[in-house]
Amino acid sequence: QAGEAASLLDGLDPDQRAAAAVPSGPLLIIAGPGTGKTRTLTHRIAHLVTERGVPASQCLAITFTRRAAAELAERLEALVGPQARDLTVATFHSLGVRILREQHARVGLTARFGIADETVVQELRDEHGDTYKKELHARDLVDFDDLIEMPVDLLAGDTSLIEHYRARWPWVSVDEYQDVDETQYRLLRLLCAADGNLTAIGDPDQAIYRFRGADVGFFLRFQEDFPGATRVQLGRNYRSSKHILAGAVQAITPTTLVEDRSLEPCGSHAEHALIGVHHAIDEQAEASFVARTIDQLLGGSSFHSLDSGRVAGDGTQGLSFNDFAVLYRTSSQARAVMEALTRAGVPFQKRSHDRLTDRPGVRAVARELGLVGLHGSVVDRVRQAAHGIDDEDAFSALELLMPLATRCGDDVAQFLSGLALGAEVDTWDPRADRVSLLTLHASKGLEFPVVFLVGCEDGLLPMRWPGEDPDPEAVNEERRLFFVGMTRAQQHLYLSHAASRVRNGATRKAAPSPFLSSISPSVTERIGEAVPKKRKPKQESLF
Ligand code: ATP
Ligand code: MG
Question: What residues does the UvrD-like helicase ATP-binding domain cover (predicted)?
Fold first, then answer.
């Protein structure tokens, strides 16, 4: 098979290829950021379907966010072609919805059951206490947790159903496995036999959802749960230039969960910039530094570039706005950055995590009794429902709801579950030529030529909540978040911190993040200081 011409596996290095070509059985791919885990996963699935004759309908690929699922589906379509339509690419929640829709009668729901948003759940809880679930289900509604819990209960109580789903999807893969929580883990155990074809991919050092119940322990015990699993480690990083990679590895080393964490730089980078470290007086100065540096990297011409879109930079970089990302720990940090970028005429897009149903008017418009009672397509019903509410709110609600309403045709149930599932106002478009503003959590899995990680301050990264005792495990998770952020960068990485910052309405002094001191000064340089200084001797500590 190795001698065959133009196999899909040719685009992989030998370790990746070995992983992608594992014939069957449980497979664990454990590897650091930028080593091509996601790439290996897509190639493995494509190889199974186009070169090994596995029907696409037998493959299930699971990820955590809608964004990641959409990206996976897109990459698969590029590799597999039209057959990709028969693959099931899902988030845990959308998989749960699918199983529940198929098995609705067994849990006393109709096939068109709705997914209640948090406010409805809260109202029922207030009214009925912890019996509220009955009320919810009686109204043909389920809540967000039900989407995974109910399929788990269903399957756990019926072996024939387990057999049904195992026969349906004999090939299951999960990206970012380090972030599964207990219910998701139980669902996977039910869907996959201990000797089944489950491919789990992940990096324990990028486990960042512990606060939401994820447990990296499930990843670490994969080989006990699935005895005889093949374990493949990937060690070449194709993403980041060497100083960035070295600095990131140094940053994670004190608490790494991976025994032999080594990452060899393997990208095709023409130059290797040091990691830029910037000390600012306050968050405005920090934000100006970001705007100024973007402008400089674009050749100081961002003002003129707005018409043409792409900027040649100094002729060597060829960067454009969408090559830049600004990452931060909390969304409230975005404001200063947005102001500075606006002043500099730099176009940007912020990935928002606000819940759609928190937006003025949306809840009023989407109130299920309203919509179900109305007639016509979902678009028509949404328009009718918007009639009755305050003008400005109606306008914003319509703007937010129309893309989803249009996709749903006549299916109100689909609209309502879409609303609950896609609960975030997420207009972030990876193709738009704009600088991306993202939280560190939202940056997982992504990569950008230039990354600014702002607010590297003690108390912010690691985050410390007032009045809370520092929990060492929580601090370790913050360090992993820092590692995730650093490893998004391909060519340039800037770590900045401000000596003072307004937090919760008060100006507070801040010390640099202790994580910075894990990074050797030999891979960093101080830049963008207000008062230009002579270059420091390499060995002097920066912090
Ligand atoms: P993360 O842990 O951040 O999710 P990952 O391990 O999933 O990272 P990918 O996103 O799959 O990594 O790959 C990182 C980058 O390296 C991508 O741009 C990918 O195309 C590139 N890459 C991976 N493997 C190779 C290869 N064998 N040859 C060339 N480029 C590669
Ligand atoms: Mg990945």
Answer: 10-241
